[in-house]
Design goal:
Layout: H1 9-16, H2 24-41, H3 47-51, H4 62-71, E1 91-98, E2 129-137, E3 140-147, H5 152-155, H6 166-175, E4 177-186, E5 189-192, E6 200-202, E7 207-211, E8 230-232, E9 237-242, E10 248-252, H7 272-277, H8 287-290, E11 309-312, E12 322-324, E13 336-339, E14 344-350, E15 358-366, E16 380-387, E17 392-397, H9 400-403, H10 407-412, H11 414-420, E18 429-434, E19 441-445, E20 477-483, E21 492-500, E22 526-531, E23 537-541, E24 558-562, E25 569-574, E26 580-586, E27 592-598, E28 615-621
Parallel strand pairs: 7-12
Antiparallel strand pairs: 1-28, 2-3, 3-4, 4-5, 4-6, 7-8, 9-10, 10-11, 11-12, 13-14, 14-15, 15-16, 16-17, 17-21, 18-19, 19-20, 20-21, 22-23, 23-24, 24-25, 26-27, 27-28
The structure holds MU-OXO-diiron and calcium ion (3 copies).
Length: about 625
């Protein structure tokens, strides 16, 4: 068994809270129903979508194939298993930032032997880079970027097996959260502008305001915050989003792992709400040993203050981040925002855990450029997705009438509200991407080893279903939906599977993957995803990189580009061994693509004998042309 510091979030949940098995009957019956969705779904919009008038993506015709040839401006690269980054011929990459790089000139130089000092730990680029978005403010280029979690062996190299000290905990807290930084391109490529007035670290102790319907509710009140309106920190910042008005959205994912009970001797019993979100006696990083607010036997409401989407204004380093409770409390992956034809703001959000759900928020007010944005993320309706096997689907409003819960309970125990309306259990919804080029959105369903094996954390059975058709799904897929009349605020949609990842070399049946998977573009576990300005879908992976057995030929984690028209998918970049490729944004002129390399296992980016450091790389075309 892996040591506890190296467990993924779902391995951690499985260890602490094993899920009940579902019956063989569920498995067989549902499997028979769902095969239709898989077999007809890939690249073909089913009759359901056609009936909804989405009128999109109708063909794999010669014309579409021709268009695709012009869409990709690179030659696909092979899989790699080494310790560095590869990009296609005619492209180059350089490092923009690695964890520990200074944002301010009073940070001490990084020393790999000691990791980081307490004094410098909130003045440097944080650990485990994840979602990011670029902004232009007063003509300057800024990036806001998440630091999801920590790698204790690299961040506290002298700690060994010793218990976490109070100082260890503060260092780890300072290395997570969000960085806002100014960047500029010079002779050496893109660099951080050290000491820029925009540079900022937001971490696990940064004060933030709680807004929306749950603000001030009893469930959010604590000893330190009897009003229930101010909280310290944002936890486990995974994917990102950008509002139409130019603010950053950071998403709190596996927040449960930071809470525990310090005293193993005391009696403590969990609750349905804690169990559903995986909050238990043991925290991952010893926070509960040193800070009472993370001890759920002392502060049972503190976990209700995490699991939200948080809005940050990158243009104002003094602005307090705001937790937007109207968008629900789940293990938020990312927040993909768009504007409906009538001006309402739509935000799509996945809840990344096995058998959890896909959500949508629609504002009541409307957005106009330059107009007031107050309330657009506080006053609206939250929905959950139901996918039908006939390739239609609907957004079900999470209202008190539909769920039997009150309005605030729905926002704090959102998973239970979704279970109450019988939403479709999904194979770990990671990023949602919304196209600007066509009325279409996609969600990466990364994998689900428990599909057709066990129930989800709430006991909802997980038989195979339309968009999740494969039992013990170790490869993942991308589901795509087309809203009725091209309106993301409409309540009905048509859907298909853009790709089923798989392995045509060694896989059998459904495990070979869809027709657009071949020996040249194998991958598993799609995760980060974003459409570029031309409408290409960029897919990043966070999967098994052993390159053996079922994963033979896939190599390291990678980034691929997919053409929504033809279905063609090409591999563009591979990451170093052990890393996940996650986070993607572009410079203002689109000449540079910034890509995140999280938790490299090899000594990346500084080569042999150096410490592995999560990094952001800048990818450019040698001829200076646009890259997306
Ligand atoms: Fe942080 Fe679900 O990825
Ligand atoms: Ca992810
Ligand atoms: Ca993942
Ligand atoms: Ca990750």
């Amino acid at each position: 068994m892996k040591d506890l510091h190296h467990l993924s979030a779902d391995e951690w949940d499985e260890l602490h809270d094993p899920r009940p098995e579902i019956t063989e009957f569920d498995r067989v019956v549902a499997s028979a129903i769902s095969r239709r969705g898989f077999l007809s779904g890939v690249l073909a919009i089913g009759s359901g979508a056609a009936a909804l008038g989405t009128g999109l993506l109708s063909s794999t015709s010669a014309r579409a194939q021709e268009a695709a040839a012009g869409v990709f401006d690179f030659k696909a690269i092979p899989a790699f298993t080494d310790g560095t980054v590869h990009v296609p011929e005619g492209y180059e990459w350089k490092v923009l930032a690695r964890w520990g790089d200074p944002l301010f000139s009073d940070a001490e130089p990084f020393d790999p032997a000691t990791g980081i000092t307490l004094a410098s730990s909130d003045k440097v680029f944080g650990e485990n880079t994840d979602g990011m978005e670029a902004f232009v403010v007063d003509g300057r280029q800024l990036i806001a970027i998440n630091h999801e979690y920590v790698n204790v062996d690299e961040n506290l190299p002298q700690k060994g097996d010793a218990p976490f000290s109070a100082e260890d905990v503060t260092i780890l807290q300072n290395l997570q959260g969000v960085t806002v930084m100014e960047i500029a391109e010079g002779a050496e490529g893109w660099q951080i502008v050290v000491d820029s007035p925009y540079n900022r670290r937001i971490h696990h102790n940064t004060p933030m305001r709680i807004a929306g319907p749950a603000a001030g509710h009893d469930m959010l009140k604590t000893t330190d915050d009897p009003e229930g309106t101010t909280v310290l920190g944002t936890l486990n910042n995974c994917g990102s989003g950008k509002t139409p008005w130019g603010t950053y959205l950071t998403c709190e994912e596996n927040f449960n792992g930071y809470f525990g009970v310090a005293n193993p001797e005391i009696e403590w019993s969990s609750s349905e709400g804690f169990a559903r979100y995986g909050i238990g006696r043991e925290g991952r990083y010893g926070y509960e040993l040193h800070q009472a607010r993370f001890d759920v036997s002392k502060e049972p409401n503190e976990p209700h203050r995490f699991g939200y989407v948080v809005e940050i204004d990158p243009a104002n380093a003094d602005a307090m981040p705001v937790k937007r409770t109207a968008l629900g409390r789940i293990k938020h992956e990312n927040a993909a925002a768009t504007v409906a034809p009538d001006g309402r703001v739509v935000v799509y959000m996945g809840d990344d855990e096995r058998g959890e759900y896909l959500y949508r928020y629609v504002s009541n007010g409307t957005y106009t450029e330059g107009g007031r944005t107050e309330g657009l993320l506080d006053d609206g309706q939250l929905y959950v997705a139901k996918f039908n096997d006939d390739m239609t689907g609907e957004w079900v409003a999470l209202t008190p009438e539909a769920t039997g819960m009150d309005a605030v309970e729905i926002l704090v125990h959102t998973r239970m509200a979704a279970s109450a309306v019988g939403a479709t259990t999904m194979d770990r919804p990671e990023w949602v991407a919304v196209s600007d080029a066509a009325p279409m959105a996609c969600c990466a369903l990364t994998n689900n080893s428990n599909r057709a094996v066990k129930a989800n954390a709430g006991g909802d059975p997980m038989p195979v279903n339309g968009p999740n058709p494969r039992p013990e799904n170790n490869y993942g897929q991308v589901v795509r939906w087309m809203p009725e009349n091209g309106d993301h605020a409409a309540d009905r949609f048509g859907w298909d599977l853009y790709v089923m990842a798989g392995n045509p070399i060694v896989g059998q049946g459904d495990y070979k993957g869809s027709d657009n998977i071949n020996e040249g573009n194998l991958f598993n576990s799609p995760d980060g995803m974003m459409f570029d300005s031309r409408g290409l879908l960029w897919i990043q992976t966070d999967g098994e990189d052993s390159n053996e057995g079922p994963y033979l030929g896939m190599g390291n984690n990678q980034m691929l580009a997919g053409d929504p028209e033809s279905g063609e998918i090409r591999r563009f970049l591979t990451g170093p061994k052990g890393s996940e490729v996650t986070g993607l944004t572009w410079s203002a002129d689109r000449s540079t693509m910034f890509v995140g390399i999280q938790h490299p296992g090899a000594p990346f980016p500084d080569g042999p004998d150096s410490l592995p450091r999560s990094s952001v790389v800048a990818v450019k075309r040698l001829d200076g042309g646009a890259v997306g």
